[in-house]
Amino acid sequence: MLRLEPRREPSRPMFYVTPFLAIGLTLVAGIVLFEALDKPPLAAMRLIFIEPLTSLRGVAELLVKGTPLILIAIGLAISFRGGIWNIGAEGQFTIGALAGGAVALAFYPATGWWLLPLMSFAGIAGGAAWAAIPALLRTRCNANEILVSLMLVYVAVLLLGSLVHGALRDPDGLNFPESRLFQTSLPILIEGTRAHVGFLVGLAAVLLSWVLLERHFLGFQIKVLGQAPRAARYGGFSDKGLTWFCFLVSGGCAGLAGLFEAAGPVGQLVPALPSGYGFTAIVVAFLGRLNPIGILLAGLLLALTYIGGETAQIAMSLPSATTAVFQGMFLFFLLAADVLVNYRPRWISKRSPATDPRAHSDAQVGTMRHLPTP
Amino acid sequence: MTSALLELHGLTKRFPGVLANDAVTLRVGHKEIHALLGENGAGKSTLVKMIYGIMRPDDGHMRLNGEIYAPHKPAEARAKGIGMVFQQFSLFDGLTVAENIALGISAKMARRGLRERIAAVSTAYGLKLDPDRRVGNLSVGERQRVEIVRCLLQQPKLIIMDEPTSVLTPQEIEALFETLRRLVSEGCSILYISHKLEEIRALCDRATILRGGKVVGDCDPKRQSAHRLAEMMIGTTLVPPQRATFGLGPVRLKVADLTLASEEQFGVDLERVGLEVKGGEIFGIAGIAGNGQAELMEALIGERLANTPGAIEIDGVPVGAQGPLARRALGLTCVPEERTGHGSVPDMTLWENAVLTAKTRMKLATSGFIGMPRAKSFASKVVRDFAVRSRGIEHAVRSLSGGNLQKFVMGREILQAPAVLIAAQPTWGVDAGAAATIHKLLLALAQSGTAILIVSQDLDELFAIASRIAVIAGGRLSAARPLDRLTTEQIGLAMGAHGGWEAPPPQAEPADA
User: How large is the ipTM?
Assistant: First the structure.
């Protein structure tokens, strides 16, 4: 029988090595997978992970896809560090795009330097407002934020769908369910590509969140709340205040990412705007160890799987699920490696003294530690 | 020598980096109460875990009635007639006594007639128990009876008792000893683990003393002085803390009419708690665990706010409506009973845990930004001044042993030069040497003018350092009595008396001890 024993102090270097280990294992598993599909594995891996980086266009696309992932994941990391499981970033992303887009459409066809900041502000406010619903229900009624925030994703997506079919539909658009094209769009970063200034905002978010989490007392309070809620009460930190902060920041980040998507590469509101960035960002946050620098790298890596997966789909006629499979494997291998960082596996003979419930008390305490922390 | 019931020969158990038991040899005779004496960390628990089949020795062997005995699991130990009453009860609050007992014994025994047998055993040994009451409503002493009855139902030849008296009143302890003596007269043997010397001298026929995993002595405890036993246990000569005589200052902590309903299902409501602690005074609160101590600590720390601001005052400033941060700014620091996860964050480093409570008073942050050099130097000072054995302040608090974590948390609160220090079980889990150091530091802190409130189940500790003692029972606090007008018996009675002394005391002018 294999038994897991909690380690007294999990190794800190291993904590940062495991994401790379997970990437390595994913690549190996990918090769096996392609072999099983009868596709040349090395060529496929090259197509997915290297090909996109060889052209300026590919790199620019990497930034386009990476921006929402990084921005959302930064917000989620802050929230997850505080033990606030906001799973509904996809919905907050959608409402952010909707709110900011509605501002753009309200002023149509006006343009001006003030419009983009106003849209951005509306995007942040929209995302934060959507996140305020689970925040309110959790702090007031002790409702489970995982369920509430997740279910609100579907509400948000349906709301967007109904509005682009109705109030926000382009009057000159031949009844297609789309809004007008925005008159203002994000400034382009690299001439001739779709890479926009949103990426710089993402970098700023990385920097700010690093300062918040590693140097500021507010971030310290969030971390204490996440790791030991009773110690947070003892420290005198307001758990309700911190819960609200976490929800509003993560919702605001997701909302801004949503607006950037609408006002950047898409340029209008369409029902298909929410394309899963809010969920992929959860993988990014964990693969990046809830650490801003890690999230920057993980965001770019997962963006690569989007682009590479698409290329491979077209070039080698791979199934469209390829991207999702790779993203899933990253998370799976990471979580599996984490178990080994926190626990030591030991073979125990069948007739083991471990069958007494009392002997398990240590292991039970161990399973309570859900999240490793840097 | 006559044949022994249980013999251990050269039992050795290694853990990574520690030799927990080093060739321990020990004999428990028939009808003998055998004490296993030693400090925290001396290896007592490891030894009995091997006897009870929870762990297996790396070396050495055991004999039971002359036959080789090597249990692989507790069920085997029980089948061979060895029972154990743990220090931490494994009972479910929501289930009845009979249901709890049924869960803890073999399925065959749990079937029919269990309630009758529970009743029979409990009357035969004077262990009053109602099989249909919910365990959540029982006192700690009654819960222990459930454990003992569960153990007795299996008709053991040897009962291992791990620190059974730490949660009992003096009267309950006497009743427990009666039961144990009766068991022995009927042919049972008892392996009695404790570090309380007087108890061992009163109860036990033989004592084996462990220190650092080795047997360092074997004696008849009735023929040794408690002082001599303590020296064998600790290995050095102990000097009890000296109390200096000094004058008391003004009242620094005042609690008046504090009433607070518990948030927990089996919690205790605080009822009209009142006390005053002067600068320079150490005020002790005695009581059995689970009588409102946890709730009182929460209210004093500020984790739960009082209903009126005036219910708690620090240096005359009403703080009942203010949270821990405001109270700390006024000079209140505190050590909660649970160090891991409450008094500290296990996965954070030592210096981060210093920031947890010392941020305001030690100015460890400027305009919200954590001053890491200051925080680290404060943490280093705590480690140095309190001799915390650690791998460094950059390591997680999880890596500290229980006693060292206790020293770290106590040190962090004491070094903030508090106006009022509140500590629950200040020496719980530390060895006798460290306990003496902590007592000395508390006395010195009091001398510097701090008002100190100690909540402790350890009466010896309160008698050693407190100048006045009150008893908490059922969420009510008795009036305080100066130490020189107080006996252990009186405290024991008050522990069961719900908030009052048997006879009203002459009212409490704090005595200059």
Answer: 0.83
